[in-house]
Design a protein that fits this description.
The complex is a heterodimer of chains A (400) and B (324). With 400 residues, chain A is an alpha/beta fold. Chain A is 39% helix and 8% strand. Chain A has helices spanning 4-7, 28-34, 47-50, 63-89, 105-112, 128-133, 138-145, 178-193, 211-222, 254-257, 270-286, 324-331, 335-345, 351-374, and strands at 120-122, 199-204, 227-233, 236-237, 240-241, 262-266, 291-296. In chain A, the strands form two sheets. Chain A has a five-stranded parallel β-sheet, sandwiched between helices. The chains are: A alpha/beta (400), B alpha/beta (324).
C-alpha cells in the first residue's frame, strides 16, 4: 500500500533504525520515539480530514484520554510481544491458535477511546488488541492462552474465542462474518431496551467478501441501528493481497451502495481513528444508524503463529507472500512512537515519564504471564459442563 | 508408487481428471492447489490449468464456492468446490435445498456433477470451538441426493476423489487433516475406489471394529495392543457414509457377534447411531457398542479434548471389556 493512498502524500520524518538490517530490534519502536522529540507537531487538521487520511493532532483530546491511549496501545503491544516470546521459548508448552495484532493497535485503541464501558464490541480472530482496549483483564487473557483455570473462558476457548460479556466484549471469534450480525443484533437490543449503547463489529479486509457482512450492515441501515463496522484492512487475507480477493481499493466504498456513511482512515494514527469513530458514535447514539470505517493498517507478524518471528526480534521477516521492506515501511509508521512523539512534543509527558509508563506496562504484562504459569490446570471432565446452563452431557467416549 | 501426503494424493487425482476433462473447474478459498511429492514432483493446478478453470486465490465466501459451483455444474461443467475446515456447515442450506434436491425436483432434468471437497479439522487440542470439529459428514448423509465419502488415508483419498469426479451426482468428500500424514503407497496413475465399498483392513473373529476417517486412524493405532492381548479383531473402514456399505459390516458381525463403532462425531444422531441401528435390525442378538465424542463442542485445553476423544487407549479398553 503506497503511503500516498493513506495520507495524501504527507510523510513523517522518522529517525534512524527503521531500515536496520535483519529487522528492527524489539525495543526499537522506543528508540525511534526517543530521538524524535519535536519531529511532529499537532496540525490543525479538521475531523473531516481525518476521514480522508489526514493525520490528526491531539487538540481537544483530554490529557487523561491521551495517556490512556498511549498506555493501552503499549499494553496490547507488550502483552502480544511477551506472549510471542513465551511461544518461541517453548518452555511453557504453549499450543493453539495465536493471531497477533501487533501493528494494528491504533485502530483498536482509537475506536475504543470513543466508546463507553457499556458499549458492545464483536471481535474476530485477531482481537487481542480489541480486548485490551475494551478493558479486558490481561491476567485472564494470559490464563486463557495457557489454557488454565484462571483463563477468561476457563480453558474452553483459547486465544481465538476470548470473551468478557461483563465488559461488553461479545467475544473474539474463530469464524469470519458473524461479528457484523452480532453487532447489528446488539444494536437492535439497545433499541429494544431503550438505551443509547453502541455496538462495534471488527473485521479484516477478507471479511467484507462475506454475505453476513452485508446482512449485518444492510439491516443496521434499514432499522437505523447504533452499529459501527470497523474494517481493519491490513492488506492481506492470510497470504492473499487484497487485490486478489476484492476488486476495490478502498473498502469503505462498500458503504456507498447501502447509503451508509463511510470513510477510510489512517489506521496507524490513533488520533485519526478516534476522531472518525467519535463522529460515528455520535451518529449512532442520535439514532442516525450505522457507519462503516475502514482503517488501513498492517500486521507486523504472520497471519497466525510465528513463521518468520525470532526471539528478541520485533516483527516477522522472510515471509513468502510479502516483502520485508513493505513490513519495514509500515513499522516506520508505527502508531505508538507516533503518539509518544506528539505527547512529548506537546508537553503532555516528558520522555522519562513516557519510558516509565512503558516499563510499568511491561512489568504488569510479565506478571500476568507468571500468574498464568502458576494457575491450576483445568480438570478434564469439566469438558462436559457449560453445554447447557445446568446439566452435564454424558461421557459417550467410553463405550462400555 | 510411493507414499504421498494426502493433499498431494488428492491434487494428483484432480490433475488426472482435469487432464481428461477440459472443462473440469475448481473454486477454492485459500488452500492453494499446489503440493510437492516426497520425490520432489510439484503439482500446481493454477499454473497448469490457469484461469478460469482454477482462479488465482479466492474470497472468504464459501457460499460462492458451493452455490456458484452448483450453478456451474448445472450447465454441465463438472465442478469442485473446496471449502475450508471451519466451515463444514456453512453451505448446508444450499446443499440441502438445492444441490441435493434439484435432480429429483425437476423430474430428473438437472445433472449436478458437483464435488464438495470439504476440509475438516478433526479433534485436536488448542484450536477450540470452531476449529476442532468432526462428524458433520453424518449431517450431510442425512440429506437426500448427496453422496458422502470420508477417506482415512492418502491412497483412499485419491481413489475416492476420482470416483467422485466421475459420479453423475453431487458428492461431498470430507478430508480430515489427520489423514494427510498416514503413510501408504499411492499409485501414480489414476484409479477408482467405488463409492459405497468398504475396506476390510484386518480379518478377525472376536469382534468387529468399525470406523472411518480419524476414527479409523485411532482403530489402526489400537491394533498392536489388541493383538498383544490375544484379541482377534476384524476391522472395517466403510469409507462411504452414503451409500453406507452396511452388508460388509453385517456379514462381519454375523461372524464375530460383537461390534464396536468408533466415531469422532457426536453421540446423538451420528454415523455410529445409524450403523448400530442397521446392524441391530440385521443381526439380532449381537453385542453392540459405540464410542463417540460427547454431545459437547470441542474445548481447547488438551486435558479436556484428549479425554473426550475416542482414541486408541479408549478403544483397547472398550474392546477388552467387550470380549472378556
Ligand atoms: C467463514 C470463515 N471462512 C474462512 C475462515 C478461515 N480464515 C481465518 S482468518 C482468515 C483470513 C482473514 O483475513 P482478514 O479478514 O483480512 O483478517 P486478518 O486475518 O487479515 O486480520 C481466513 C480465511 C474463517 N475463519 N471463517
Amino acid at each position: 500500500m503506497p503511503r500516498d493512498e493513506i495520507d495524501g502524500g504527507r510523510t513523517e520524518h522518522l529517525p534512524g533504525g527503521a531500515e536496520a538490517k535483519g529487522g528492527l530490534s524489539r525495543r526499537s519502536f522506543l528508540q525511534i520515539a526517543a530521538g524524535a522529540t519535536g519531529a511532529a507537531m499537532a496540525t490543525k487538521a479538521t475531523v473531516a480530514r481525518a476521514g480522508n487520511g489526514w493525520s490528526m493532532g491531539l487538540e481537544g483530546v483530554p490529557r487523561e484520554k491521551l495517556l490512556w491511549m498511549y498506555e493501552t496501545m503499549l499494553k496490547s503491544r507488550w502483552w502480544e510481544e511477551e506472549m510471542k516470546e513465551a511461544f518461541l521459548a517453548g518452555k511453557d508448552g504453549l499450543y493453539g491458535a495465536f493471531h497477533i495484532s501487533i501493528g494494528e493497535e491504533a485502530s483498536a485503541v482509537g475506536v475504543m477511546a470513543a466508546l463507553r464501558e457499556d458499549d458492545y464490541i464483536a471481535s474476530n480472530h485477531r482481537g487481542h488488541a480489541h480486548l485490551v482496549a475494551k478493558g479486558g483483564d490481561i491476567d485472564k487473557m494470559s490464563g486463557e492462552l495457557f489454557f488454565r483455570s484462571n483463563g477468561y473462558n476457563l480453558g474452553f476457548g483459547g486465544s481465538m474465542h476470548i470473551t468478557d460479556v461483563s465488559k461488553g466484549i461479545l467475544g473474539m471469534n474463530g469464524i469470519i462474518g458473524p461479528q457484523y450480525l452480532f453487532a447489528a443484533g446488539a444494536g437492535y437490543s439497545a433499541k429494544v431496551r431503550g438505551t443509547d449503547q453502541v455496538a462495534v463489529a471488527f473485521g479484516g479486509d477478507g471479511s467484507v467478501n462475506n454475505g453476513w457482512y452485508y446482512s449485518g450492515l444492510r439491516n443496521a441501515a434499514l432499522y437505523k441501528l447504533p452499529m459501527i463496522a470497523v474494517i481493519e484492512n491490513n492488506g492481506y487475507q492470510i497470504s492473499m493481497p487484497q487485490a486478489r480477493t476484492n476488486n476495490l481499493v478502498n473498502l469503505s466504498q462498500l458503504g456507498a451502495g447501502m447509503d451508509i456513511p463511510h470513510e477510510t482512515v489512517n489506521g496507524m494514527d490513533v488520533l485519526a481513528v478516534y476522531a472518525v469513530t467519535q463522529r460515528a458514535v455520535a451518529r449512532a447514539r442520535r439514532g442516525d444508524g450505522p457507519t462503516l470505517i475502514e482503517a488501513k493498517n498492517y500486521r507486523y507478524y504472520d497471519h497466525s503463529g510465528l513463521a518468520g518471528a525470532k526471539p528478541g526480534v520485533f516483527g516477522a521477516f522472510g515471509l513468502p507472500y510479502r516483502s520485508d521492506s513493505e513490513n519495514r515501511a509500515w513499522m516506520a509508521e508505527d502508531p505508538i512512537p507516533k503518539l509518544r512523539r506528539q505527547l512529548v512534543a506537546n508537553a503532555i509527558l516528558t520522555d522519562e515519564e513516557a519510558t516509565q509508563i512503558e516499563d510499568a506496562v511491561r512489568a504488569r504484562v510479565l506478571q500476568s504471564l507468571d500468574t498464568a504459569r502458576n494457575a491450576a490446570r483445568v480438570a478434564h471432565d469439566a469438558a462436559l459442563s457449560h453445554v447447557f446452563a445446568d446439566t452435564k452431557v454424558p461421557a459417550s467416549q467410553f463405550a462400555v | 508408487m510411493a507414499p504421498k501426503p494426502g493433499n498431494y494424493a488428492v491434487l494428483e487425482a484432480i490433475q488426472h481428471e482435469m487432464r481428461r476433462d477440459p472443462h473440469l473447474t475448481m473454486l477454492y478459498e485459500y488452500q492453494r492447489p499446489t503440493a510437492v511429492s516426497p520425490t520432489g514432483t510439484v503439482i500446481d493446478l493454477h499454473a497448469e490449468f490457469g484461469e478460469p478453470r482454477i482462479p488465482d486465490w479466492g474470497p472468504i465466501d464459501e457460499e460462492w464456492f458451493v452455490g456458484g459451483g452448483a450453478g456451474i455444474a448445472m450447465t454441465g461443467v463438472r465442478t469442485i468446490a473446496r471449502v475450508p475446515s471451519m466451515c463444514t456447515l456453512r453451505c448446508f442450506e444450499l446443499v440441502f435445498n438445492q444441490v441435493g434436491k434439484l435432480r429429483h425436483m425437476t423430474g430428473g432434468q438437472v445433472n449436478m456433477p458437483l464435488v464438495i471437497w470439504q476440509d475438516a479439522s478433526g479433534r485436536r487440542p488448542g484450536s477450540a470451538g470452531q476449529h476442532a470439529d468432526a462428524g458433520q459428514e453424518a449431517l450431510y448423509a442425512a440429506i437426500p441426493g448427496i453422496k458422502v465419502v470420508v477417506p482415512a488415508n492418502p491412497h483412499d483419498a485419491k481413489g475416492l476423489m476420482i470416483a467422485a469426479l466421475r459420479d453423475p451426482d453431487p458428492v461431498i468428500f470430507f478430508h480430515y487433516s489427520g489423514i494427510n500424514s498416514v503413510s501408504v503407497d499411492v499409485p501414480d496413475e489414476g484409479y477408482v475406489i467405488p463409492i459405497g465399498e468398504a475396506a476390510i483392513r484386518q480379518e478377525g473373529t472376536d469382534i468387529t471394529l468399525v470406523g472411518y476417517g480419524p476414527a479409523a486412524i485411532e482403530i489402526n493405532k489400537s491394533l498392536p495392543d489388541l493383538a498383544a492381548a490375544g484379541i482377534s479383531a476384524e476391522v472395517i473402514d466403510p469409507r462411504s457414509i452414503k451409500p453406507l456399505p452396511i452388508e460388509a459390516i453385517n456379514a462381519s458381525v454375523r461372524k464375530t457377534g460383537k461390534l464396536l463403532v468408533v466415531d469422532h462425531g457426536h453421540e446423538t444422531l451420528g454415523t455410529a447411531s445409524e450403523i448400530i441401528a442397521r446392524v441391530a435390525m440385521a443381526v439380532p442378538g449381537a453385542k453392540l457398542a459405540r464410542s463417540t465424542f460427547p454431545d459437547a463442542p470441542p474445548p481447547g485445553a488438551a486435558e479436556m479434548i484428549t479425554w473426550m476423544t475416542p482414541d486408541a487407549p479408549k478403544i483397547v479398553d472398550a474392546v477388552r471389556k467387550m470380549v472378556a
